[in-house]
Structure prediction request, 209 residues.
Amino acid sequence: MQSHKFITAIIVLVFFSQITTGQTVGFYISPTQYNQNGGLVYNNVENRFSTDFGIFYKIHMSNNLNIQVDLVKTKRISEVDYSFSNCKVFEDFVEIPILLELSNKINDKSSFFASIGPNISTIFKQELLFPEDVNIPTDLKTEYGYSSYWKFGLIANIGIAHKITPRSSLFVSASSRHEFKDLSINKNNNPAFFYHTFSINLGWQFKLR
Prediction:
């Protein structure tokens, strides 16, 4: 079922790419500040910092309207208080924002843009760091079920792009992401934990046609 949805999404993107005014690809690096509300065993986290990396594919529907799909790698560090010990949790995420973007020229070389859309994230790597003298239960991940999940949220973005060649430009933007819906099936019905982030994105983009 999931594969059918993925194939459908690819077909839709290919269809739109054939009826639009062009496509753009690019990448960015994002110094990010994040907060987390805890769930069952996770502690609340405030004002932590990380560096995120993203690539994107943008479809130009008109001179001012674009659809953009990103693939973003993020890293988060949090703490957990178990009944037998506390530990640090290191998690790597993949996020997929799908954005509707409006843009407008400031002058011949610069333009302003703003975008908003849904964001889906999932863990692809998780490490728990306990004190050395702690006896760790073998059923730890089974008990708490946090080794993988899918979260849904919204992302908003605002920024400025400046042309450095006729087809490429540099951009800087500010974005805010808020998770609020747990899409995963948690075996023990543990309360979900959500991240809320603010990022400054520094990137480069190239118009394919």
The chain is about 10% helix and 65% strand. The longest strand covers residues 86-105. The chain has one domain: 22-207.
